[in-house]
Design a protein that fits this description.
The protein has 197 residues and is α+β, with helices and mostly antiparallel strands. The protein has one domain (38-189). 52% of the residues lie in helices and 15% in strands. The protein has helices at 2-21, 73-80, 84-105, 110-127, 134-143, 156-170, 174-177, 185-189, and strands at residues 38-52, 55-68. A hairpin with a 2-residue loop joins strand 1 and strand 2. Helix 2 packs across helix 3 (84-105) and helix 4 crosses helix 5. It is elongated. The mean pLDDT is 77.
């Protein structure tokens, strides 16, 4: 009886093993965009105020930023290699500095707002990672900061951004820590300040 079971098991392995060996293995894929491709983010806020029954004022505030997308698979190879996180941090730092400059020109504390966004994104999306949609994934991509150890030659901004990201993972008190920023970029991107949401 045991001999039949063993023979059947061996026969099954002989039959199944060629099928298992032919199953293709998919490797991690990367996207390279055409030369000059960019991601543009625009935020437009409009507010109306009625002055008198027949008159009203409309005030609009527009904010936009453009981020160059990777356009060569050679660049993407750097992201996969050990130490590629330094390049990712540098790329994110360039984006964050552009955002800070725009917010500074609008009268906000740009550095504090970016740090608050890094903190809030880490706090918000770490806990419910399975339940996020496309918009949340986009925000996580922009405000996710590589957490590998900061090297000695990297700029101080990298340490500040990483500290904000790690603070968000540990605590939910981002608005208190970065209180010089009066609004949340993450909430704005998610439509929390909209009257229609």
């Amino acid at each position: 009886m045991y001999t039949k079971i063993i023979l059947k098991s061996i026969l099954m392995l002989i039959i199944i093993s060629p099928i298992i060996s032919k199953i293709p293995i998919r490797h991690k894929r990367y996207i390279a965009f055409p030369e000059g491709a960019s991601l543009s983010i625009a935020i437009c806020m409009t507010s109306q105020a009625i002055i008198r029954p027949s008159e009203f004022i409309t005030e609009g505030l527009n904010w936009g930023i453009s981020y160059d997308l990777p356009n060569s698979s050679a660049i993407l190879e750097d992201y996969k290699t050990p130490g590629g996180f330094v390049r990712r941090r540098r790329s994110r730092r360039d984006l964050y500095q552009k955002m800070e400059l725009i917010m500074d020109s609008m009268g906000y504390n740009g550095k504090q707002c970016v740090l608050r966004a890094l903190c809030e994104a880490a706090a918000m999306f770490i806990s419910n990672h399975e339940e996020i949609g496309l918009l949340e994934k986009s925000i996580m991509t922009v405000f996710g900061f590589p957490i590998q150890e900061i090297l000695d030659h990297e700029p101080e901004d990298h340490r500040l951004y990483q500290e904000a990201h790690l603070h968000g993972k540990k605590s939910q008190e981002c608005s208190i820590k970065y209180s010089k920023c009066t609004f949340s970029l993450v909430d704005m991107a998610l439509g929390m300040y909209s009257y229609y949401s």
